[in-house]
Amino acid sequence: AHQPTAVVEAGQASAKPGTLMGDPVVMVSLYPEFPESVMSKFTPCGEFVFLLDRSGSMDCPIHYESHQSRIASARDTLLLLLKSLPMGCYFNIYSFGGSYEHVFPKSAKYSQKNLKRALKRVEEMNADLGGTEMLEALQHIYGQPCIPDEPRQLFIFTDGEVCNTKTILDEVKKNCEFHRCFSFGIGEGASSELINGMAREGGGHAQFIVGNERMQPKVMQSLRLALQLLVSDISLSWDLPKGVSATILSPPLRSLLQGHRSLIFAQLTGECSEATDGCLTVRFTAAGHQCQNQLHFDLQAAEGTANVSGFDQKGDLPLTCFTIHRLVARTLIRSLEREQREIGEEAEEIKRVVELSVQSGVSSVFTAFLAVNKSNGKAVQGPLIYRENPTLSQLLRGVWLNLMSDDSCGEKNIFRRIFSSWRKRTSANKHGKSLKKKVFSGDSEPRKPARDPLLELVSLQDASGCWLLDPCLAAALGKSTEDLEKTKPASAKKDVWATILALIWLHGVQVNAKDEWDLLAMKATLWLRAKKASCIRDWVEAGNVLLGCNVQTDALGL
C-alpha cells in the first residue's frame, strides 16, 4: 500500500477513441524518497504559525457524544504542537473570529520563556471572537517578512465556512512560494472547499476531524510532514515507446512529502507494437540538491482487471467498472469547476464539464442523477411529491417566524440567530442529561474537569525536551516526591532522572497514544544523548522498577 505503483486501465470499447473514456489511462501513486546523503545533514527547523478559529460555533461539542468542546480540544492540540516543536525554530499563534489576535507581534524564538507565555495565552482562549473572518488574519501573517533559512509552516484550524472562500484561496495561492499550509476542518460543518483548497494552494496537507475522531493524532501527523525538507522545482517526464504519449490530467504537483502519497493521472494516446514498458521520472530540488525518483511500469492493462469489477463476457464493460477512468474524470471535473468559479460563466468550460460528467457517470455542479424505477414496467403517474423532515422543518419554521417579527434583525443576523437557536435546542436535547451530572464543590461552583494524564505530563516538559524533578511530575507519574528522590541513582542528575522516568511512563503506560507524543519524546531523547551519561541502562532499569514497567533502553532511543 505504501510503495510507488502505476495502474494502467484500458478504455471503454464502445467509447470514441480520443475521449477520456475511450483511451487508456494511468494512475501513478508516488511515495517520494529523499536521498540518505541529504537527510543525514538535515536538521528540522522553520517558522511555525498557528491560526485558530475562535468563532462562537467552536463552543459546540467536538461530536455529539463528547462533553469536550471544539475549542477545548484545539487548546489541548496546541499544547502538544508547541511542546513538539524543535529547538531553534520560531513560532507564533493567531486566533480569529470577527477580529483577530496574536500572541507575539512577530514570530518569536522558541525558548522556555516564550513557550510559557504562549501556553498561558492558549489556556485563556475561548470561542468568544464572534464570526468567522479569516482573511484579515491571513493577510497580516503573509505581511510579516519571512525569516531567512526558516521555512514558514502555517497551521489553520476552523470548524465552519466563510463567505469569501475564493478570496482566501487566492491569498494563499499568491503566497504559496513562501510557505506551506496545513489545514484542519473540525466537525461536519467545516467547508471542504475551503480546507482542501488552502492545503492545495499552499502545498501542504488537509485533514478533517469528524465523528468521534481525535484531533491530536491527525494534527501531529501533519506536523511530521511540516518538519520535512522543503521541496521545490518539481518536474515530471515520461519515457514511453514511440507512438505513445501521455497527457497529464491531474493538477500540477506543488509539493512532495516523504511517506505521503501523491497521485498523478494521465491519458495515454497512440499505439505501440513491441515495447510495453513505460517510465515516469520525478525531478525535484531538496536542500539545494538535485534529486529524482523513477517508476517503471507495464503499459498493457492486465487481463482480468475489469473482471474483478464485474465484466460481462456477453457485452461491453459496465460504466461502474472503469474505476481509474472515473477517478481521472472526477479529478478533471473538480479542476474545471474550480476554473469556472474563478473566471465566471464560460459556455465552453461548462460544456466540457457536462460532457465529461455524462461520459463517465461522475456528478458535477452542472449535472444530476435521475433515479428511474423500471422494476414493474409501468410509467410513473401523478405529480411530484414534496416531503419534509418534520422535526427540522418545525424547528426552523418556529425560529424563522420569531425572528421575522423583529424588524431590526438584518439578513446576516437572522441566520446567525437561527444557528444559535438551533444549537441551543439540539444541545439541550442531546447533552441536557450531561449537565445534570456536573460535580459541584461546596460553594456551588462547578469543578474543573480532571486533566488527561498524558496532557498533564506533557504540560510539564521544558522547551529543551527535559523534565524537572518536582512534585508536579511526581503527581503526574502517580508517585510522591519522596519516591522519586529516594530511588534516584546517586550518579544521576535530577533533571536526567526525571526525563528518564517521563520517557519510561510514556512508552510503558501511553503506548497507544504514541502518535501524539512521539515527537516530544524524540526531543527528550536528543536532550539525554547530549548529556552523554555512561550508566543510562542502569538508570532505565531503576526507573522500570519504580514505575512497574518493562521498557527497554533501545526502545527509548538511548
TrEMBL record:
It holds the Pfam family VWA_3. Residues 47-223 form the VWFA domain. It comes from the Eukaryota. Keywords: Coiled coil. This is VWFA domain-containing protein. Residues 329-356 form a coiled coil. The lineage of its organism: Eukaryota, Metazoa, Chordata, Craniata, Vertebrata. The keyword Magnesium does not apply. It comes from Characodon lateralis.
